[in-house]
Amino acid sequence: MGRYFIHLAYNGACYNGWQTQPELPTVQQTLEEALSTLLRQKIAVVGCGRTDTGVHASDFYAHFDVDTFDVDKLISSRENNVDNVSTYQRINLSTLRFKLNNLLPPDIAIFDIFPVADNAHARFDAVARTYQYHVSDRRLPFRQGQYCRIYYRPDLALMNEAARVLMEYEDFTSFAKLHTQVKTNICHLTHAEWTEQGDEWVFTIRSNRFLRNMVRSVTGTLLDVGRGKLTISGLREIIEKKDRCAAGVSMPACGLFLTKVEYPVPLNL
Fold first, then answer.
1. I need a surface site. Which of 157, 183, 206, 212 has the fewest CB within 10 A?
2. What is the Cα–Cα distance from 73 to 66, expressed in whole angstroms?
3. Which positions of the chain have pLDDT values less than 70?
4. 104: DSSP letter
């Protein structure tokens, strides 16, 4: 058996999140079905995270295990007259990527497929993830489903002051979805900032890990600061209460993107 990483992106609008669910379309299920069809065996895919329904990913990694022989069958050595095994493998994986992109729906794109060590893990080996949330007070017809429309102009400087407050804390229980099975609500943030990009305001946040629904609830709370409904001291009180009911609303999924997943070492063999 060989282990392979897939580098991909997807528009989550038509999916009930990443993780497979009974009788509901998900990215994981769609990818597994396509790989199983091409490789002629049942393939299980492990993702670097579990995005919620409607959340997008412009940078996502997953891994799967497969008999190397089955990958090699995609192009026979006789057809390609290739003697070098490493070159042979690269050609076959390139073909697998090509066929996979043709088989998958157009809202999922495969950038690369490459071999990794047998113990490499798409989720547990990731050391940092970056999310972005997009909002605008304008009607943007060509961005439908990829931003959240708001009906006020928030104070960007004030929201960035609030974002810097987040960096002083590690326990984000107040922004975590209730009744999950995580062992800790500790997250180590390394970046939190609002920027203005054209007609949109974009919140970028980077951490070693995120709690379920955390980015959307953090965004909603910071927007409360930006519209004058919450003070900086009020934000501190919310964080220190460690109570989800104290924080702001969770923003809609459509504006959220997973934009970067980082690993400690080069993954390619």
1. 183
2. 12
3. 68-91, 179-181, 267-269
4. S
Residues that are catalytic: 52
In this structure, the answer to whether residues 84 and 202 fall within a common structural domain is: no
CATH number at residue 37: 3.30.70.580
Radius of gyration of the chain (CA): 21
pLDDT digits over 61-111, tens only? 999 999 765 455 554 443 455 444 454 455 589 999 999 999 999 999 999
CB 53 within 8 Å of CB 15: yes
Domain annotation covers residue 145 = yes
Q: Write b or e for each residue in 38-66: b if 16 or more Cβ atoms lie within 10 A of its Cβ, otherwise e.
A: bbeeebebebbbebbebbbbebbbbbbeb
Here the contacts of 18-27 (C-beta below 8 Å, separation 24 or greater) are 18/47, 18/49, 18/50, 18/51, 18/57, 19/47, 19/50, 27/51, 27/108
